[in-house]
Amino acid sequence: MTDWKPKIVTFLCNWCTYGAADLAGVSRLEYPPHIRVIRVPCSGRVSPKFILSAFNQGADGVWVSGCHPGDCHYIEGNFYARRKFALLKNLLEHTGIEPGRLHFSWISSAESTKFADMARYVCQTVEALGPNRVMVKAGIAPSTMPACQSEGGGCCCR
Question: Where on the phi/psi map is residue 59: left (φ > 0), alpha (ψ -120 to 50), or beta?
Answer without folding.
Answer: beta
